Amino acid sequence: MRTLLKSNGIKMFGLRRIGKSTLRQYAMEQFISAGTPYAFFNGEGLNSLSDFLAGWLGAMPNRKDFLQKTLDVVGKSPAKTVLDALTNGTPFEETTLEAYWQIVAQAIARASKEGTPPILIIDEFSTFMHNLINKHGAEKADRLLASMREWRGAGVRMLLTGSIGMKALSRQHGLNSEHLNDLQPFPVPELTEEQAREFVQQATDPSSWTAGHTDEFLKQSGVFYPCFLVKGLLEVGNKAQPQDFATIFSERVRPHLHADFFNQFDRRFKAYSALGDNRREELLLPALKAVMAVETCRGEELPCAPAFDRIDLMEAMEMLVEDGFVDFTEDADYERHWKAGSRLAKNWWKRSGLA
């Protein structure tokens, strides 16, 4: 909440089922409690600029007032037709919006400066961008990203989440990645062992669940994302003993959750083949090998093929971070120390056959 309210907003992209939706839901609960207006919509099934505006404006708590402000800004220009249609919920041609997009976008920015606009929250934003690119081209997506940055400059805070990494999507389609640079990245890491232990203890009955149960449960879980802990607790139930946990996890927990996450890593890595210049094989794969081979890897130890420079390499590493493959810390001398993004990423690497 501190990060969100003391900046232009947050971008939170990463694997499915790691906790992004829980954090988003928490933020919305806090806004409701504090009386802070927000507008939320899911972008997964949307694929056009008009879909975006309809989703946003339709979710606004003060929709009519805001739209009236934009109408006042555009006056009698042709863009009024688009805004009138949005106000009344009537259909209009996408080409009309595209033709007058700049006028509409600037009107929204000017209206946003009057008062405090609702915080804009979009789930599966990167999936929407992918859909928009596929249907209308990268130029439309880049135009929207530029306008969104202008709106943030006018006071519209944003929380954008998604299960597709925007770094790789931008590189693949030539989008201007700087349009999202004013948003703060917010990674969703695994719980620490201490947090996972507390999580399990709070979810179990102390009259029948001992410290020995917790020790064996965490050993068998191995992965400390909340979804793993919840799945494990549901399967273990109230009556199983620690000696039963290994069988339960091997038969009813890992086969399902590991398959889900490993498939996500597979799809992400395969998608890198569309980056061009053989970046996946010559840049991303050698870097992954270097990181996964050790506990931590200093940035200067990362290999860089002769066809690329260190700036290319750092851009590639940012893709791998956003997609959950790797993570890093940075010391006082600004040296980055790279490691696997999670236990899941390490396990995926062992099974991938890429080593």
Automatic annotation (TrEMBL):
Gene3D superfamilies: P-loop containing nucleotide triphosphate hydrolases (3.40.50.300). The keyword Signal does not apply. The keyword Nucleotide-binding applies. GO terms for molecular function: ATP binding. Keywords: ATP-binding, Nucleotide-binding, Plasmid. PANTHER family: ATPASE DOMAIN-CONTAINING PROTEIN, DNA-BINDING PROTEIN-RELATED. This is ATP-binding protein. It comes from Peteryoungia algae.
